[in-house]
Amino acid sequence: MPELEHELLTTTGRLILLLGRSGGATTFTEARKLVGSQIYYALKQATTLGLITEEEGGKKIRLTEKGKSVAECLVKCLP
């Protein structure tokens, strides 16, 4: 991950950016590689904010419509 993204974004922001770059969905394993040990906090926060949904018992993460809007902004700002 570029240093700028790491410095500017929270773990939740990095999760949403990953999903935006991945077409709106990714696996828990891929998200954990990027977010690290804070993945559970990021998932909880993004779910609480209505930005993601978890499927297949938490193995797959997908953006909601609201999450897609946020991700689109992040992808434009940090290509």
How would you explain this protein's 3D organization?
The protein is α+β, with helices and mostly antiparallel strands and 79 residues long. The chain is built from five helices and three strands, in the order ααβααββα. The protein has a three-stranded antiparallel beta sheet with strand order 1-3-2. The longest helix is centred in the last third of the chain and has 13 residues, at 65-77. The chain is globular, with a radius of gyration of 11 Å. The mean pLDDT is 92.
Keywords:
5 helices; three-stranded antiparallel sheet; 79 residues; globular
Give the rounded overall mean pLDDT.
Answer: 92
- Helix/strand order, N-terminal first: HHEHHEEH
With helices defined by DSSP (H or I, 4 residues minimum), what is the helix count?
A: 5
Characterize the main sheet. Answer: 3 strands, antiparallel
* Distance from first to last alpha carbon: 12 Å
List low-confidence stretches. none
Question: What is the general shape?
Answer: globular
The amount of beta strand, in percent, is: 5-15%
Radius of gyration: 11 Å
